[in-house]
Design brief:
Helices cover 14% and strands 47% of the residues. By secondary structure, it is mainly β. The protein has one domain. Strand 4 and strand 5 form a beta hairpin.
């Protein structure tokens, strides 16, 4: 993991320096209006989760909040959309049935023509700048940390993100980004079927010395576990080691721009 994160930290810098002469893209869009055969991970917006080592935080964590970052005149702010409860090493959250349009982005504005959409007028929460994030707070309202749902192996990991869509829509296609520096190639593939309301998207990352493959899929993946990540206060025992989420996500957010 540390080796991969080091590459992720360096890749935007070096590719940015040589983008004109040494990097290229290749878009292989899906066909037609998408496929109705893509599995969906729609859910009603309510879920209960058990956190790894969660009982260690019972006396510290009081409330859970779900936040979305929205862009207001080029200034990103966090707005809370739901509050949950913490008990017995886990939490329960009920998300709102509908989301205000200010939280949603046109698919075409996010990805342009990079991928094929069954409905280009569909609006979803943004990847990744505006993805709903789950945060933990103490009884005084102080931020303690973040909650993530993931599965990790050698040179690969799977994250689950929650996404809201204002209508049913499929997203398919493949985007390849090549950079001659160290011979890196990054390939992003979408095979996603969203239903109106809340959905789970699984992001599968696989890496080698020369490639990084990312799959976005709504086909359910089992084995993921919930982890708490300390916000930096060093208050907690046995927390999961924090990975450089901001840096790794920055590469996704530039795709299709």
């Amino acid at each position: 993991m540390k080796k991969l994160l080091k590459k992720l930290a360096l890749l935007p810098l070096f590719c940015g320096l040589v983008l004109t002469s040494a990097c290229s893209t290749d878009e292989e869009n899906g066909n037609g209006n998408g496929s109705n055969d893509i599995p969906t991970s729609w859910f009603d917006g309510t879920f209960t989760a058990t956190v790894v080592n969660g009982n260690a935080y019972n006396d510290l964590i009081d409330k859970i909040g779900v936040f979305i970052s929205i862009d207001t005149n080029d200034n990103w702010i966090n707005e809370k959309i739901a509050t949950g409860t913490w008990s017995n090493g886990g939490f329960t959250i009920s998300l709102p049935t509908t989301l205000d349009s200010r939280f949603l982005w046109l698919l075409g504005d996010i990805y342009g023509t990079t991928f094929t959409f069954s409905d280009r007028n569909a609006r979803i929460t943004h990847f990744f700048d505006g993805t709903p994030r789950i945060r933990a707070f103490d009884s005084d309202g102080n931020l303690l940390g973040f909650l993530w749902n993931e599965l990790e192996g050698e040179n690969w990991w799977v994250d689950m993100e929650i996404v809201y869509a204002d209508r049913d829509v499929t997203i398919i296609g493949t985007y390849t980004y090549s950079c001659e520096y160290e011979g890196w190639t990054e390939t992003e593939t979408w095979s996603v079927s969203l239903r109106r309301g809340w959905n789970k998207i699984y992001i599968v990352d696989k890496s080698t010395e020369t490639s990084w493959d990312i799959l976005f899929t709504t086909e359910p993946i089992s084995g993921l576990r919930w982890y708490f990540e300390d916000a930096g206060r060093s208050l907690f025992p046995a927390t999961k080691s924090t990975k450089n989420t901001t840096q790794s996500r920055s590469i996704f957010s530039r795709l299709g721009r």
